[in-house]
Design brief:
This protein is of the alpha/beta class and 250 residues long. The protein is 46% helix and 10% strand.
Length: 250
């Protein structure tokens, strides 16, 4: 399990966001929460953040538009929807604003680039993944895209944020794979060069004088060869007996 760190930035002024590159080196995720239409437009167009988190319990002056939010999604920024405010808030106006803003946001983004979060301050504000998917379907988001908002989109967000911080221009990631082993032919050539320099031969370079393998057991004789050997012995014995008979004693 990997624990990530996150920094939330409340955007109140469009000219006071120069420390975001420094915060990216200290945190795994950097989230921006715009407070008005101007800061929301700036976050979608130019700010180098990972998440745009909106306070959906308040009423926005203008409706959400796809060109502005689509630009943020094309840059790899995810839009965060927090649902606990509509569950635990005692203000009916906040609940009404949450439902209205979530419906507009889903319609404006066309269901893309959305992630769901509880933003709960207690355990009572958290819900199971299936409950969140059902809640998103009530707001107008399909079941498949609601599931992606809990699985696929958060994972892509974390990996894209890691690549931006550790890779080269967010494209090439350098991974240490260990040292490359030397080829066998090159190692043998180096050994021969060392032997030539020292004037000694390496063991195994020459096979002259190496005794052949000998076996204590003799090879088995075939039956045909046994018959031939027996016949040769009988012929030799017959010749010896015949020579003794012919020989005359002196």
């Amino acid at each position: 399990m990997r624990i990530l760190t996150r920094c939330n930035i409340y955007l109140t002024d469009a000219a006071s966001n120069f420390r975001i590159p420094q915060l990216q080196q200290l945190y795994d995720l950097v989230a921006a929460r715009p407070t008005d239409e101007r800061t929301l437009q700036q976050a979608c167009q130019s700010l180098d953040v990972d998440i745009i988190s909106l306070d959906l319990s308040r009423r926005f002056e203008k409706h959400f538009k796809f060109p502005m939010l689509g630009m943020a999604i094309s840059r790899g920024i995810k839009i965060e929807l927090c649902y606990s405010q509509g569950l635990l808030s005692s203000d009916p106006l906040a609940k009404r604003n949450l439902i209205s803003n979530a419906t507009q946001l889903i319609r404006a983004t066309r269901g893309r680039g959305l992630i769901f979060s509880s933003e709960a301050k207690s355990v009572l504000g958290m819900r199971a993944p299936s409950d969140v998917i059902n809640l998103a379907s009530v707001w107008g988001l399909g079941t498949e895209k609601g599931k992606d908002g809990l699985t696929k989109e958060p994972r892509s967000l974390v990996e894209y944020a890691r690549l931006k911080r550790q890779s080269y221009k967010g494209v090439v990631d350098i991974v240490y794979g260990g040292e490359k082993p030397k080829p066998a032919a090159k190692a043998s050539q180096e050994g021969q060069e060392m032997a030539t320099k020292t004037g000694k031969k390496r063991p195994g370079d020459s096979l002259v004088g190496t005794p052949a393998l000998q076996s204590d057991k003799e090879a088995p004789v075939s039956k045909t060869q046994q018959k031939k050997n027996k016949k040769a012995k009988m012929d030799a014995a017959a010749k010896e007996s015949l020579a003794e008979r012919i020989t005359v004693p002196s």
